[in-house]
């Protein structure tokens, strides 16, 4: 049976959680393969809203085994706060599995994240301050702490002391902050060991055996294509691989096991944090999208920057991810607009670009080239068949589909898990 990847095709917040949740009853495992608690999914079930940050969306489906893969960085305090919050609402979290190879966010990583952003001032990246970047940096510098290190106190102390040799010098001499005591860090981390031990496993082996047994594995990406550390709008990106390639390295599943890649797109575009955004709106139209689509960060509460749909980005996401199916979300937010602009290309210094510009400089100076499509006024939240959508809404979907290089298989018409129009089956 297949491994299926779900990725974001823009700058995140496209509705990946809802898409994963919709497939939950038809898959056996849902695996979070990158990122940490710097991003979130909002899933609405029967009118109840669940904000998930570190946990895979599959946690809400009783028949699914949710897995936090080796590519994720884990803040244990956040993990158990989230688990406790769901348990208090009657959600069973006992099925959760955590990779022994996942890296842990140590307290000093959060401190460094925050003071570095303040130090950068106008050159800041716009991180969430949750220690994600510094933890991935430790991983690449081979001074990181993994979940399995919790089970060997001697090794844990050695690793924390090694990491703090340089970090304490930076904290005291560059940022004028107090040194971090390695013993305090170890004690804090060991405080979670008894609770975390039962959920830890060799998740790569677990998933391989599941696939061999004919079970379906869904790989769920955090953040999105344009936040990928290699393929995103660098340096205004996350610190992990949020594209299909990251699904393999972050889960331990081989590329040959993946046979479908589902990318999630909003019917318009949003992003948070700093960085270029060609279709961004600074007027009443942008505020309308923000308020109507409730564009505020699940994790941070920050208002999202809003703009029109960008087909150039859609084509780029299709190419770098190998997209087989798109899910177009929040079509209902566009209801009531007389005309709906769609960016079909960029003007950069008088030269038209139909694909993503090669350099950061050109992308920063890209001016959108728009086509305007007719809008619609009818309420579409109750529609479940594509043929029942207003003619102009159908035309919008088909026109966008023709621009982005892969078929649109699902259209979101509201926030609830059932408020979708399915054109093609995703499994």
Walkthrough of the structure:
The chain has 427 residues and is α/β, with parallel strands linked by helices. The protein has three domains: 3-98 and 199-262, Adenylosuccinate Synthetase, Chain A, domain 1, CATH 3.40.440; 103-194, Orthogonal Bundle (Adenylosuccinate Synthetase, subunit A, domain 2), CATH 1.10.300.10; 265-422, Alpha-Beta Complex (Adenylosuccinate Synthetase, Chain A, domain 3). It has 13 helices and 20 strands. The chain has helices at 16-23, 76-88, 107-120, 132-140, 153-173, 182-190, 193-196, 203-212, 244-249, 284-292, 311-321, 360-364, 391-404; strands spanning 3-8, 29-32, 41-45, 48-52, 65-68, 73-74, 97-99, 103-104, 200-201, 217-220, 258-266, 269-271, 305-307, 309-310, 325-329, 339-348, 351-353, 367-374, 407-412, 420-422. The strands form five sheets. Strands 9-7-5-2-10-1-11-15-19-20 form a ten-stranded mixed beta sheet, with helices on both faces. The longest helix has 21 residues, at 153-173. The chain is globular.
Draw up the topology in text:
Layout: E1 3-8, H1 16-23, E2 29-32, E3 41-45, E4 48-52, E5 65-68, E6 73-74, H2 76-88, E7 97-99, E8 103-104, H3 107-120, H4 132-140, H5 153-173, H6 182-190, H7 193-196, E9 200-201, H8 203-212, E10 217-220, H9 244-249, E11 258-266, E12 269-271, H10 284-292, E13 305-307, E14 309-310, H11 311-321, E15 325-329, E16 339-348, E17 351-353, H12 360-364, E18 367-374, H13 391-404, E19 407-412, E20 420-422
Parallel strand pairs: 1-10, 1-11, 2-5, 2-10, 5-7, 6-8, 7-9, 11-15, 14-16, 15-19
Antiparallel strand pairs: 3-4, 12-13, 16-17, 16-18, 19-20
Helix pairs in contact: 3-4, 5-6
């Amino acid at each position: 049976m297949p491994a299926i990847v779900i990725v974001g095709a823009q700058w995140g917040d496209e509705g990946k959680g809802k898409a994963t949740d919709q497939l939950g009853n038809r898959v056996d495992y849902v695996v979070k393969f990158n990122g940490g608690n710097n991003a979130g999914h909002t899933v609405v079930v029967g009118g109840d809203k669940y904000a998930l940050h570190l946990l895979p969306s599959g946690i809400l489906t009783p028949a699914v085994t949710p897995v936090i893969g080796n590519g994720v960085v884990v803040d244990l305090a956040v993990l158990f706060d989230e688990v406790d919050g769901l348990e208090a609402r009657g959600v069973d979290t006992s099925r959760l599995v955590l990779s022994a190879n996942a890296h842990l966010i140590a307290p000093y990583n959060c401190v460094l994240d925050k003071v570095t952003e303040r130090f950068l001032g106008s050159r800041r990246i716009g991180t969430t301050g949750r220690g994600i970047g510094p933890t991935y940096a430790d991983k690449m510098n081979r001074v990181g702490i993994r979940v399995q290190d919790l089970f060997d106190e001697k090794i844990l102390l050695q690793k924390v002391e090694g990491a703090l040799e340089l970090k304490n010098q930076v904290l005291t001499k560059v940022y004028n902050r107090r040194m971090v005591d390695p013993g305090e860090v170890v004690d804090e981390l060991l405080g979670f060991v008894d609770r975390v031990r039962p959920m830890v496993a060799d998740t790569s082996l677990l998933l391989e055996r599941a696939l061999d047994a004919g079970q379906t594995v869904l790989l769920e990406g955090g953040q999105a294509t344009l936040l990928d550390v290699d393929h995103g709008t660098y340096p205004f990106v996350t610190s992990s691989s949020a594209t299909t390639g990251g699904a393999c390295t972050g889960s331990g599943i081989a590329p040959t096991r993946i046979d479908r890649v589902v990318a999630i797109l909003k019917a318009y575009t949003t992003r948070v944090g700093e960085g270029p955004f060609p279709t961004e709106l600074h007027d009443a139209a942008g505020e309308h999208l923000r308020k109507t689509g409730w564009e505020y960060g699940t994790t941070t509460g920050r208002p999202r920057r809003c703009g029109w749909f960008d087909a150039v980005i859609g084509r780029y996401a299709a190419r770098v991810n190998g997209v087989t199916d798109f899910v177009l979300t929040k079509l209902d937010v566009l209801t009531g607009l007389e005309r709906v602009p769609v960016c079909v290309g960029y003007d950069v210094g008088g030269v038209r670009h139909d694909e993503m510009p090669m350099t950061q400089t050109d992308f920063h100076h890209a001016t959108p080239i728009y086509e305007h499509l007719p809008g619609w006024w009818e309420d579409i939240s109750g529609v479940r068949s594509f043929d029942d959508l207003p003619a102009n809404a159908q035309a919008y979907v088909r026109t966008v589909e023709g621009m982005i290089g892969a078929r649109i298989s699902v259209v979101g018409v509201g926030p609830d898990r059932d408020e979708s129009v399915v054109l093609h089956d995703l499994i």
